Fold these 2 entries.
Entry 1:
Amino acid sequence: MLIQILILLASLAAIIFGADWLVDGASGIARRFKVSEFVIGLTIVGMGTSAPELVVSLVGAFEGNADVAVGNVIGSNIFNTLLILGITALLLPIAITPANRKKDIPIGILATLLVLGLGMTATLLHFGDNTLSRIDAGILLLLFAGYMWYSFAKGESQEEVPGKEIKLGKAILLVLIGLAGLIAGGKFFVDSATNIARMIGVSDKFIAITILAGGTSAPELATCIVAAVKKRGQLALGNIIGSNIFNLLLILGCSALVQPISFGSIDLVDAGALMGSVLLLMLSVFTGKKNSLDRWEGAILVAAWCAYMGWLIYEII
């Protein structure tokens, strides 16, 4: 038990320091290329912090375990939007730019609708089957490539990104070390927390919907909290929107390309929680302080996540 606790503490330290270095390095790259912090969060940080989800889903697809591939993405996106953005907004209200409102958040909504429409055709539209095919995978991957190109092509910012100037080489090194710390720390954190939970007699089902569900999103959580503390709200928002789009289009696209994956384990409550999370984010643009995710709206997101977790726990009891 003592060894597992020491591993847990060491992995937590790796996550915290990794997030700190990643945010500093990403901000440095944004300043160097005069690209907005949101775009850096959307691409480099978003894709980097989603690496655990990519590994888990691809392994699940290769092993023919669709529940792992689909459940990991759906659960991570709900966790990202409701809990992580909610906590971040509680720490620091997040400004939502016109580009976020007109392009980025709506694209996240459309990506969510597309994946649910393709994967849950039988449940939602009463024809076909609840399977994401290889053709569907090709569509998702093409859309992902187009969105990444568009984000970089249209993402230049004339505004000076605040902060101390960092040499490009050092900034890239900070990003790489930070990502390594986040990914390795996240893996060991999940493994040690799972082992400790089993030692004290917690059921595997409860472990699955708590430790494992949130474990692959630990990099996003740490990165967003650090970004909030450093007053980098746009980096945090870009990280979550980028991670969610990465999960839906690239991870599910790659997984379904390896082997068509079934959405049979996803019910209407899961789909509703996923869709509701992105709609709540869009709604925050027009409520309270306009163009801002305020603290009370962050509290609503966290409460919605708690309600969904409560439902999952109720289902398995």
Note: The mean pLDDT is 81.
Entry 2:
Amino acid sequence: MGKITESDIRESIADALQYISYYHPKDFVEGMVKAYEVETSDSAKNAIGQILINSKMCAIGHRPLCQDTGSVNVFIKVGMRADLEITKELEEIINEGVSAAYQDPSNTLRYSIVSDPAGKRVNTKNNTPAVIHYSVDNSDEIEITVAAKGGGSENKAKFAVLNPSDSIYDWVMENVEKMGAGWCPPGILGIGIGGNPEKAMLMAKEALMGKCDIHELKARGASNSLEELRLKLYEDINKLGIGAQGLGGITTVLDVKILDYPCHAASLPVAMIPNCAATRHIHFKLKGDGPAVFEKPDLDTWPDIELPVDNIKRINIEDLSKENLSQLKVGDTVLLSGKILTARDAAHKKIVEYKNAGKPLPNGVDIANKLIYYVGPVDPVGDEAVGPAGPTTSTRMDKFTKDMMEMNILGMIGKAERRQPTIDLIKEYGSIYFIATGGAAYLIAQSIKKAQRVAFEELGMEAIYEFEIKDMPVTVAVDSEGNSIHSIGPAKFRSI
């Protein structure tokens, strides 16, 4: 074989990241299709349908599956007999590939990485550095797995050192219930057992890179204790009734993947990391014959889905007020039209700082009687008003909700559940909380007809935008009476 060059590595990393930004893995799509076909919850089926429609649109349009285009994870195994023609550190070459991918003008990806994480948290502007894991073998090639991991699912990672006599099953079940819907189910759970703390966490992440094959395992039956645990967890997690987006349903996980490693007799390290509805990873090898080549998937993998239009309410936001929000009930499917403002963590923090200082927001921005959408969009390309613009996890904004209510916001749009104190505030102030489907960012963006940054432009994707929307699909998650779909929905489908 020939030499493996810097450009081969750099180009392969860049192409892989572009590829996974708009193509779901085939096995994941097939798992989602199965989940869609068997789902009996109307709300959950609608959410899975939106995710699949979004997935096919992204495959055709080559735009990101999710506005959170992820932190980059690279697993690289370097053969000791590989003929490498490189003059730079491998880490530098990989990060050059990451930078090229995220700054590709044909498909811009969102920069989410900040430096000085305990201090100023300044965006690096090219989504580097990647988190890179190295290993070696005795081959003459380089083996690489590239993944883009969204923050919502990463934030739900769990780790514990159990006593050797403790139940791994009980620990996983308890923590899955606590995770809620912020990780954007349905997705995959990766579990690492044994080794030591860092090994367990690494195995949990690696497990997520495996094929979604639980149905094959069910058909042939378990042949060892780990496979038995996989099947039991898969069945029983789905019996919890959490469902797609936490709306209540029969599919919460598409698969449970487990890796293990020998550990000290006195301990039992266990880690769990979920992968969301924007599962993105790819595996390839470099053998000295040029950069990796990624084949386009068959579009027939995706079904043609038409979402039901019965019982959908079309609402003009200008017609909404605190006095008439009571017309909207928990679980209602709504198509919103009008103007909304966006704000995420950083913008909320600044808004509260301005409020406490008695200062008006910049540029005359007024959040009173406005719906606030929790989103950090991808930059637009071509004639787009905005790039993919799906919701971020709402619980991160709970700490700011009282201040926002005191500033008389109309309501909020995000994803996943709210904590009880926030639900109480929604009821107290006669407000409302809608959810949009996490994992349907490109689909949602089609409803955004105009977008402009109106405050805190220095925050980049976390700036405040004004969106003009037409028929944006949302669901009432907490109504003005304090009823929550994330309590009511799963309770209907819980069977364990």
Note: Residues 151-277 form one domain.
